[in-house]
Amino acid sequence: MMSYVKKVLSDLKEKNSSQEEFLQAATEILESIAPVFEKHPEFQENAILERLVEPERIIMFRVPWVDDNGKIQVNRGFRVQFNSAVGPYKGGLRFHDSVNLSIMKFLAFEQILKNSLTEMSIGGAKGGSDFNPKGRSDGEVMRFCQSFMDELYRHIGPNTDIPAGDMGVGGREVGFLFGQYKKLVDGHVAVLTGAGLEFGGSLVRKEATGYGLIYILDEALKMRNETIKGKNIVVSGSGNVAIYAAEKAETYGAKVLAMCDSSGYIYDNNGINVDIVKEIKEVKRGRIKDYLKYPNTESAQYVEGGIIWNVKCDIALPCATQNELSEESAKILAKNNTKYVAEGANMPSTNEAVDVFLKNNMLYLPGKAANAGGVATSALEMAQRSSRIQWTFEEVDAKLKTIMVNIYHNIDNAAKKYGFEGNYVVGANIAGFLKVANAMLAQGVV
Ligand SMILES: NC(=O)C1=CN([C@@H]2O[C@H](COP(=O)(O)OP(=O)(O)OC[C@H]3O[C@@H](n4cnc5c(N)ncnc54)[C@H](OP(=O)(O)O)[C@@H]3O)[C@@H](O)[C@H]2O)C=CC1
Ligand SMILES: O=C(O)CCC(=O)C(=O)O
To answer: Binding positions for substrate (predicted)?
Structure first.
């Protein structure tokens, strides 16, 4: 059956030769699900893979807006509606200057399997723009979001496609996007998750991706008679996912030694004060190096442009961006005896880095399983919104924990069933794929 996978992959490479990140994600996924086709010839007979790798729809559009100097700026907007077999399209919006079609497609492709793993009825999508909100005034961000929504609104809806935040899109941006959507359609509907608590949002959504990462890690460690308590952790990034992963890890008794942004990392052998990072990033929208200006941070250092994975740790949590953890960094982690890697970001480790983790018998939890808590809580937000109720923080948090524990056992069982015990690349991809493939099969050739 490998020949079937190889053929689909080689056609995909020919058709999308310049889409590096998309091909990276597709190669990892397709190669790891190859064993499924031995047991399920019906998938090949029905061209499930050929259909799965082709997005149902891609929307690309112009986003013109006026900056604070009265100058007209033009960005490019995207929404990749990749697969709606399991449910309406669902996935975040990323505003970052690196955004291009390849990155949008890789993120949307990953999202299909991730959303399937949550066991909620949500399909896979992703969108965004090459606009970077960093350094822009609130007024500029608002005008950009309004122009972005002027086009996007006609392609989304509470039963068709429900975007949310991702890199560069937090509460402020979701608020502006929602305001413009509401004005355009004249309806207060649940079309974006990660909404403010005042207008339909859910408690815990902000914390969910980072907390969920620690919940699944905790379960994986428990199954090995291990615990997070007392472990030294390095968390890359200092955005939404990184902050709440670090916060939860500390409540479990771990010490967070280092965090970073794209300029450099801070390191403190006594442990980072996550509240300061939160203040710098969520309130001041500043740089991580500002950490050293705060009281009681004398034992911390800032390393400009340094590679955070050089810091010796027991647990590595890549929570920044794709391909931030190279093969070389993976070898350093292995040499430093790091035993656990759990991904808060999407595809932060290169495929070569993942090979190093697996060869060294490190526990590796891939992003599509480990960071699924964010989108799962988005689905909980949709459930609350449609039934006009609001669960307490504790209720949502308990549901999130259950979902993450279930994901762990689901990927663990799938890995065992297919003869790859402990390999969660195989486990996550197969478990996610089977539900989507069966849904596609049931719905005919569409
Ligand atoms: N938000 C969510 O709910 C979910 C997010 N994810 C994924 O998690 C990752 C982080 O998202 P999120 O926290 O929301 O994004 P944010 O924009 O809130 O934060 C991103 C962080 O990563 C840093 N960063 C970006 N590029 C690099 C780089 N090359 N090297 C080092 N640090 C870098 C940023 O620093 P700087 O400020 O300098 O750019 C920032 O601190 C992404 O891969 C995203 O797709 C996955 C599931 C859900
Ligand atoms: O909450 C969501 O809908 C999307 C989250 C997301 O973008 C992701 O899981 O990568």
So the answer is: 90, 111, 114, 165, 378
